[in-house]
């Protein structure tokens, strides 16, 4: 009989580190905020972490997607702009969003239609990941595509090697984190992108999460010094009410006025196909709300060339145009080697290159398959 997806993935595992014994052979996982209590022979909500004889086994030693993306695609606008990021993902997720654009990999253990995600599995080692990044001249490694929190042990093992090789590392996450997992990642992680999908807890429950957990993660990630950028996919009829956008903007402002907020356009996908595409006017409205709430950096995404100056970075002190973008392409870059505005001399929040002349302008702006 042919091997099932589950059998294949269960072989590609290692002993977990982000859990504690919970009595009678059960374990308590804290890689994400679900904090599953998992009895022997059972699985966590993500389906990819399981209790084998009192030990938590976790995904290790493979990728299901790997390519070089412009860092702007993640999206990060204040983290080494113009750089290539070796981006990798595994399989599974702790959420089940109806509009997931990566559902073939994220829902593989839940939705039989996503079974084919397992065909993309490629066995690999952390050393090989870093050597691919070096070959591709990618100074950044990013765990993305599926939810990285649920495979944090694997990411840490890669990031340790990447840091030794002088690279920087990032997560693209739903933010359903715990302080313990963020503390474990902190020595290796430079930047953390979090989706803030809604400000209504009932919406989060529908996706498989809890609003407060995500809000807490944003605040905690910022507190421990990670560079945090937040994305809200503006879905018509789901989270685009101006009051809700105001709540999101006010919350972010309460954590830090320097958190870049990306309000991005939705397109119908997976199980959510009845909601219309997001209009550029909605992104304009959301951006104005963010700016009025006092956020220094608000970006409109996924509609390149259709949102005026909302793709660009301006100095929050003197309004000087620092970075001009078109989609994932940098057109102009004026942040100094010290990370300052060249006009007023004030520091620009973010992680910047100390060699601004090397920033790639007018690059390819699209993913590059390996
Ligand atoms: S990662 Fe989250 S969903 Fe998966 S087992 Fe751990 S606590 Fe549960």
Account of the 3D structure:
The protein is of the alpha/beta class and 370 residues long. The protein has 2 domains: 5-59, no CATH class; 62-369, Alpha-Beta Barrel (TIM Barrel), CATH 3.20.20. 24% of the residues lie in helices and 22% in strands. The protein contains 9 helices and 20 strands. The chain has a 9-stranded mixed β-sheet with strand order 16-15-14-13-12-11-9-8-20. Strands 1-6-5 form a 3-stranded antiparallel β-sheet. A 3-stranded antiparallel β-sheet has the order 2-3-4, with no helix packed on it. The longest helix has 14 residues, at 242-255. It starts with a helix and ends with a strand. Bound molecules: iron/sulfur cluster. Iron/sulfur cluster (SF4) is lined by residues 29, 31-32, 34-36, 44-46, 49, 94, 150.
Draw up the topology in text:
Layout: H1 5-11, E1 13-15, E2 19-21, E3 27-29, E4 37-38, E5 50-52, E6 55-59, E7 62-63, E8 65-70, E9 84-89, H2 103-106, E10 122-123, H3 126-135, E11 140-143, H4 152-164, E12 168-173, H5 179-185, E13 191-195, H6 201-207, H7 211-223, E14 227-234, H8 242-255, E15 261-265, H9 280-292, E16 298-301, E17 313-314, E18 321-326, E19 329-333, E20 368-369
Parallel strand pairs: 9-11, 11-12, 12-13, 13-14, 14-15, 15-16
Antiparallel strand pairs: 1-6, 2-3, 3-4, 5-6, 7-10, 8-9, 8-20, 17-18, 18-19
Iron/sulfur cluster (SF4) binds at residues 29, 31-32, 34-36, 44-46, 49, 94, 150.
């Amino acid at each position: 009989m042919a091997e099932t997806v589950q059998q294949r993935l269960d072989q590609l595992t290692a002993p977990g580190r982000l859990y504690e014994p919970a009595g009678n052979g059960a374990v308590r996982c804290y890689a994400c905020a679900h904090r599953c209590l998992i009895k022997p022979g059972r699985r966590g909500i993500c389906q990819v972490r399981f209790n084998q004889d009192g030990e938590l086994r976790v995904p290790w030693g493979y990728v299901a997607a790997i390519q070089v993306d412009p860092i702007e695609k993640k999206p990060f606008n204040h983290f080494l702009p113009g750089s290539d990021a070796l981006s990798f993902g595994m399989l599974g997720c702790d959420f089940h969003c109806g509009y997931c654009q990566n559902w073939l990999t994220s829902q593989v253990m839940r939705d039989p239609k996503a079974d084919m995600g397992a065909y993309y599995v490629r066995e690999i080692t952390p050393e090989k990941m870093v050597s691919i990044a070096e070959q591709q001249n990618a100074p950044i490694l990013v765990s993305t595509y599926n939810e990285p929190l649920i495979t944090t042990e694997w990411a840490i093992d890669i990031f340790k090697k990447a840091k030794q090789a002088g690279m920087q590392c990032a997560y693209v996450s739903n933010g359903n984190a715990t302080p313990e997992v963020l503390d474990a990642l902190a020595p290796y992680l430079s930047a953390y992108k979090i989706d803030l999908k809604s400000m209504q807890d009932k919406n989060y429950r529908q996706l498989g999460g809890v609003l407060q957990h995500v809000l807490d993660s944003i605040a905690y990630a910022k507190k421990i010094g990670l560079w945090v950028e937040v994305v809200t996919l503006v879905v018509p009829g789901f989270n685009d009410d101006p009051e809700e956008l105001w709540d999101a903007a006010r919350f972010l402002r309460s954590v830090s006025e320097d958190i870049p907020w990306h309000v991005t356009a939705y397109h119908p996908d997976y199980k959510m196909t009845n909601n219309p595409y997001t209009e550029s006017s909605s992104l304009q409205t959301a951006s104005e709300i963010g700016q009025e709430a006092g956020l220094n950096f608000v970006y409109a995404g996924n509609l390149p060339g259709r949102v005026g100056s909302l793709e660009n970075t301006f100095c929050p002190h003197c309004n000087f145009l620092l970075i001009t973008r078109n989609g994932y392409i940098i057109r102009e870059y004026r942040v100094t080697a010290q990370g300052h505005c060249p006009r007023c001399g004030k520091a620009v929040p973010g992680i910047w290159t100390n060699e601004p002349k090397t920033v790639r302008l007018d690059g390819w702006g699209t993913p590059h398959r390996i």
